[in-house]
Recover the amino acids of this structure.
């Protein structure tokens, strides 16, 4: 028997999911994260999961890991001290940036501009220049380069980034600087923009390369340490890390290109939701991942998550492919408050966090949170996880009463309902960002809800969006780890061309795509993926000539068959996307800016779990009845144990379905059908779709 392991490290907990590849049976463990050394929590969780399964750690063939090491290094400002080498005249490229100021009118007055990841005193200029066509305009002055590198060495830099003008067209000068740095700065890791991001636009290429250098030493140390500890513990399987775009790369590749790991955590959730939705038979869906502090949402079409070309972490925005995830500051710990000037109820983005946490946790928290409102309304029973967790309902009521007093509402329950309504609207706004504002009707999609708090609010979000069914996966609190364990190896190769369509032919573009595919596939081959199990997906960033932005468009390589239909198909696809996004098209020449080839390895052969079949009657899983507050009145709801539900059971609302890591609320007028894969499918009672 062989097992694959999914590992997701969060800020509070580390989730482990061990999967029997033959049966699909899963074993999970949740341990406290260890920020000082994440590998400690990871190893502890692996040991617990193996104990639960009764298997030795030596039977683990693959460890697939979603990590926040790179993310935390950026958010906490703990990246390496980075030196930056630029072309003569471009020393202040990071300071000039894009002149973007967040906030409303006059936001520039109060906005504290973040410090660049490479300080100006650690930035040097070297003589030498490449033209936009790749030709050498000025030869590289190697003596000048050595002098500048010695200056950086004296200043104590810990990592070096090199971003020279137009290096995407010709990396010759950057590679020579790297060779010289090996002599002048021995042991200092080097990030080249021509390798990290060989694309147009100097600022985006530079900031992405600098970010890569800033987190590279920390990620490399963590990966090496984790690999060593896995070997010492008897795990001989390979270690792979989840990228921001939902694909896997080997530990060595991840250590060299950590900028691609900045959204590793949220990507795992979207990947896990894709696996779950596929088992339930819904290829098009929205994801809704609600935790304690924030909610992440994304849109998936045809079991393929939509990806963006930018990744944002805190104040940092880099040019790196990632799942198009939008985040809003709404979670179980979000604090409700009433500003004195407006007297209008607000929820978040401030959060009570894990310590002291919501008042209901009885750990010292006194401010009213979303969790407290759910307790007051009865949506969260006071005894959870078989009695292992007890919530203080009196403390929750006392906290929410402050909102009732401040707003003049007639009851604590009315105040709690207001808190829930507002946080639901906040999350609905995030879902609109990835659906309506992108030209997609959410009513054409299902909604997959997960995270510790997601299933509690999912039914309400289904009503707001019209997205049915609402799918609640098994073990929704560890779905990110499931996503880590059920995705595939991936690599991407990119080239900037900047060519108008009338300057290209189908044959010339196909040759470029083929070359990029070969490069991406070679990386997978080096990681042991057989060539006959690889497949390649192509895309291009297009615009109308004269536009200042591009739209990514999928490229169907089969249309480039020599009959002249390739560019025509690409033109039509771009016009369709432009019409969907902006409601118009232009009678202007099309221009291709960047092309990509993404090589995919095979999906893991993990058997899908299947529940024992039963009839529609869920009463064997009914454990108690409980009063909850819904739409201005108290009603009686059944409390069900999810572990006792069987395939085919239909749970009528109002109902509360409990499990170890989450609680699902089924509202009146809705039912939750149990799918054979274990997911709950929530729908209005007047909806008659097949499972």
């Amino acid at each position: 028997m062989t097992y694959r392991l999914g590992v997701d490290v969060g800020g509070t907990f580390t989730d482990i999911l061990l999967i029997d590849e033959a049966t699909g049976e899963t074993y999970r463990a949740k341990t406290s994260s260890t920020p000082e050394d994440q590998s400690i929590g990871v190893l502890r969780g692996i040991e617990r999961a193996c104990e639960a399964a009764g298997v030795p750690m030596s039977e683990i063939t693959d460890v697939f890991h979603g990590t926040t090491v790179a993310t935390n290094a950026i958010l906490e400002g703990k990246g390496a001290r980075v030196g930056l080498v630029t072309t003569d005249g471009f020393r202040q490229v990071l300071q000039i940036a894009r002149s973007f100021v967040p906030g409303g009118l006059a936001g520039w007055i109060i906005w504290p501009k973040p410090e660049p990841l490479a300080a100006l005193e650690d930035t040097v200029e070297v003589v030498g220049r490449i033209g936009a066509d790749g030709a050498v305009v000025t030869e590289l002055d190697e003596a000048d380069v050595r002098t500048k590198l010695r200056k950086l060495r004296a200043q104590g830099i810990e990592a070096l980034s090199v971003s020279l003008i137009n290096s995407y067209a010709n990396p010759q000068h950057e590679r020579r600087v790297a060779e010289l740095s090996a002599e002048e700065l021995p042991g200092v890791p080097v990030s080249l923009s021509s390798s990290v991001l060989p694309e147009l636009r100097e600022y985006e290429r530079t900031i992405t390369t600098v970010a890569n250098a800033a987190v590279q030493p920390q990620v490399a140390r963590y990966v090496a340490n984790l690999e060593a500890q896995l070997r010492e513990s008897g795990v001989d399987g390979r270690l792979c890390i989840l990228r921001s775009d939902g694909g896997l790369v080997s530990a060595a590749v991840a250590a060299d290109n950590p900028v691609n790991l900045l959204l590793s955590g949220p990507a795992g959730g979207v990947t896990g939701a894709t696996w779950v939705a596929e088992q339930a038979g819904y290829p098009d869906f929205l994801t809704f991942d609600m935790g304690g502090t924030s909610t992440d949402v994304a849109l998936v079409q045809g079991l393929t998550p939509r990806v963006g070309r930018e990744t944002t972490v805190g104040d940092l925005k880099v040019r790196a492919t990632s799942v198009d995830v939008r985040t809003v500051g709404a979670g179980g710990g979000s604090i409700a408050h009433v500003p004195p000037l407006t007297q209008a109820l607000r929820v978040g983005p401030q959060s009570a966090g894990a310590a002291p946490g919501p008042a209901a946790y009885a750990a010292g928290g006194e401010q009213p949170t979303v969790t407290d409102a759910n307790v007051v309304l009865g949506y969260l029973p006071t005894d959870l996880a078989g009695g292992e967790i007890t919530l203080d309902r009196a403390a929750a009521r006392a906290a929410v009463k402050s909102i009732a007093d401040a707003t003049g509402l007639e009851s604590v329950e009315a105040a709690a309902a207001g808190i829930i309504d507002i946080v639901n609207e906040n999350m609905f706004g995030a879902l609109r960002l990835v659906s309506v504002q992108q030209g997609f009707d959410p009513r054409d999609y299902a909604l997959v809800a997960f995270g510790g708090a997601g299933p509690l609010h999912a039914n309400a979000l289904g009503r707001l969006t019209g997205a049915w069914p609402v799918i609640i996966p098994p073990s929704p609190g560890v779905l990110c780890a499931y996503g880590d364990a059920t995705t595939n190896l991936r690599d991407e190769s990119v080239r900037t061309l900047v060519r108008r369509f009338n300057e290209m032919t189908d044959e010339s573009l196909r040759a470029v795509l083929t070359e990029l595919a070969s490069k991406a596939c070679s990386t997978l081959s080096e990681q042991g993926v057989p060539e006959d199990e690889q497949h390649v997906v192509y895309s291009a960033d297009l615009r109308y000539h004269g536009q200042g932005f591009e739209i990514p468009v999928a490229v169907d390589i089969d249309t480039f068959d020599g009959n002249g239909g390739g560019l025509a198909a690409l033109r039509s696809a771009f016009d369709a996307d432009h019409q969907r996004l902006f409601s118009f098209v232009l009678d202007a020449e099309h221009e291709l800016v960047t092309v990509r080839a993404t090589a995919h390895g095979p999906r893991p052969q993990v058997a899908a779990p299947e529940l024992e079949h039963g009839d529609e009657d869920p009463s064997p899983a009914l454990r108690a009845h409980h009063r909850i507050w819904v739409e201005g009145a108290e009603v009686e709801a059944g409390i069900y144990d999810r572990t006792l539900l069987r395939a085919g059971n239909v749970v009528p609302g109002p109902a509360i379905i409990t499990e170890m890591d989450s609680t699902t609320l089924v509202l009146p007028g809705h039912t939750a059908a149990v799918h054979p894969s274990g997911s709950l499918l929530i729908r209005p009672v007047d909806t008659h779709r097949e499972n």
Notes: Residues 311-443 form one domain. The first helix runs from residue 38 to 53. The two ends are 32 Å apart (CA to CA).
